[in-house]
Fold this sequence. Notes:
Helix content is 44%, strand content 25%. Residues 587, 601, 603-604, 615-617, 620, 633, 636, 660, 662, 692, 722-723, 746, 779-782, 800-801, 806 line the site of ligand LFPHGCPZ.
Amino acid sequence: MIDINVPQDTWLKWQASIDLITRISHCVGVLSVVDAENQLCAKISAGLKDEDTASYEAISLNIKETSERVSIALLWPSKAIFGELSFYLIEQTDKAEGPTDCLVQTKQLARLTADNIELQLAELYRQYRCQESQVRGRVSNGDVIDLQLFIDSLKEHVWMKDIEGRYVIFNRSVEKSWGKTREEIMNKTDEELFVADLAEEFIQADTEAINKGEQITAGECEGQHAEIDRYWLETAKVPVVTDDGCLKGVIGLSRNISQHKAVQEQLELSGRVFENSVEGVMITDRDGKIIETYGAFSEITGYSREEVLGKNPSMFSSGRHDKAFYDDLWTGLLHKGRWHGEIWNRRKNGAIFPQLVTLSSMLGDDGLVRYFVAVFTDISAQKKNEEQLAHLAYHDPLTNLPNRMTLTAQIEQELRHAQYQGSQLAIVFIDVDLFKQINDSFGHLMGDEILVELANRLTAQKGAEDTLARIGGDEFVVLFPGGGGSEELTLALSKLREAFEQPFSVGENDQVRLTASMGVSVYPHDGKDGYTLLRNADAAKHRAKQDSRNSYAFYTESLTLESREHLKLQSALHMALEEGNFHLVYQPKLNFNSLKTVGFEALLRWRDPVLGDISPGVFIPIAEKIGLINAIGSWVLRAACLQGVKWIEQGKTFGRIAVNIAGQQIKRSSFVEEVKQILNETGFPAQSLELEVTESFMMSDPEVAIRDLRVLGDLGIELSVDDFGTGYSSLNYLKKLPIHKLKIDQSFVRDIPSDANNTAIAKAVIALGHALNLQVIAEGVETEEQADFLRESGCDEVQGYLYSRPQLPEALQQFLY
Ligand SMILES: Nc1nc2c(ncn2[C@@H]2O[C@H](COP(=O)(O)O[C@H]3[C@@H](O)[C@H](n4cnc5c(=O)[nH]c(N)nc54)O[C@@H]3COP(=O)(O)O)[C@@H](O)[C@H]2O)c(=O)[nH]1
């Protein structure tokens, strides 16, 4: 496009001419010019009814469907296109001339106008060139350099064709490249020099440059050279126009772009390789902005190329890696130019997945980073396979339990812990009795099903910290970290044996009952390493099998006996409630000064028909462990209330009856309701009840204690802190607790007044209680000396053998009024 301004008055003149024609010929006239994008757009229009839409497209679209059209191209003198003059005939029914006459007339007028416009364009062009040469000046004759010499010095191909398309000027490079002599090229046209297709291509490009009136870049073409196989040329073509606007020909300048082309081809090749790659490829600029993606990028990430261009790769971050990980990555990338490793990233759908990534930095000629290239593969499937393989390596495929290898590693780890902690650890070897018969009778498939069911049952019976492994056909091992006490182990063993209580289904209709023999070894007594402990547990199991099946044995014989005693106790305790083997005794609590009865503590007694009397100090902790304490505690509370009601009915005054409440009981959310219910059912007044709650429970969860005890206190029940001084009380919580009494633990009373520590503690408890506005009672008082000291120290109440042992109600008449 020639960039010469058409003055306003010239436009007006043209407008007037076009207006005139539209009136004479009853047509619409449009003068369109070529804009910067080489598109025609309307500059002048006339004869339109509605001129609002004065764009070329709007006008021509509106009228060309129905109109005859006259169009003449308007050219600059150099033959570059200036625009187009068009007239669209409007049908006139009342006119004498037919449409053909009108068209002829319009054509003549249009031609005249177009010639006139082109004359003015030529003048404008001349003026422009004149001005331009004035401004730029010209090389003086004396400075003229031989043109041929000048162009021969260039490596590029330089040539000029005249207006007929003949080569009139060209340099040596052209001759060399075309493999022709000067004479062979001079004054020849493209048709004469090249094959038809190529010549046609060259001529078309010339025409384009002429029409545009400016330099164009003609398409690349493959050159020929005697010494070089193949090379690429890019030709710039520019029309040569004299000052008065006459076209003199076309100049061409071809440069070798083989190197550029090679790079481009390389890039295209890489692109195609990347594109078809099963790996994802992402290229960012040095600021981390994504500039290209290739290959399986979208398949892997779920994002399309367009969605990520311009974004930062942090958009894929899974949040699984910490700062140190990325620091390491960047250090590798910036210092070594490469980082290779696994990264967890996030897909578009939010799922995170592992990638194996190679990151490389690409440097520019200046040695600075220009791009970062990430080539990655999705290794989710590989990871899953690895995990499955690892799982298979460490687990029994049938039951999915840890296998021997995992068990051994686990034992070693727990042993280190036990050594460090100075704690015990137990291993229980379980062997299903007569399992071979199951396989022989029902087949191995059924045998497998039973083993899976057994594995599930054993898993349900073991603790969360314990490890259950299957180490052979019908052999299982349980590792109890921290376990080792015979009592604890007995409990654990009886839980494991519960797994065998229910029969196992065999097929749809049959059932079998299984038993197992178990052997126990305990660290450190029965072995210091995993191998020895396992071997000794196995040996113990063999002994259990020999004794009788469905039995267990400890590697250390005495532990077996001890454990069996525990087991007996546990079994008997289970029966005690049902068989009515519990009863309560009551120990009076007296006012220290007046020695009048202020209440009685209800204390549980268990008399087993076979085992005899068993102390609550022994069976209460077992009841807590085997979960019987709640049922027993409810029984005690109900029995004490019933006794109180009996005394009330007998008209006896007894103060309050105090009942011991175990931590586990009160921790249940239903405890408060249960107390209310028992009071309701028995008719025992809340004001006559006292609950003794241990200090350790109150401080284990003081918030809950405050909440629950407040409800009980509000009912009128008195609350005392039992065993005070044995735990760690927070004074902050103590003052918030709705308690009435502190009970000095008998361990502090025992050596009073000889033991300076105990006397100090007793005194401190009394002072603390009084400071908190609480009553203080001393228990376990056996001697006058103890009584005197405590009384003198200000203790409010007393309880102990000195006054009365815990006794049956009938024996307590002297303490009832
Ligand atoms: N949760 C429940 N715990 C209960 C219940 N009944 C008893 N217990 C707790 O069992 C522990 C042992 O109790 P026990 O053998 O009954 O001993 C109590 C008294 O007999 C004993 N005592 C009383 N006076 C003296 C004495 O002068 N000397 C002496 N050596 N012992 C004496 O002290 C025990 C009272 O304990 P305490 O509860 O701390 O007041 C014991 O911890 C009971 O709490 C029950 O029903 N539920």
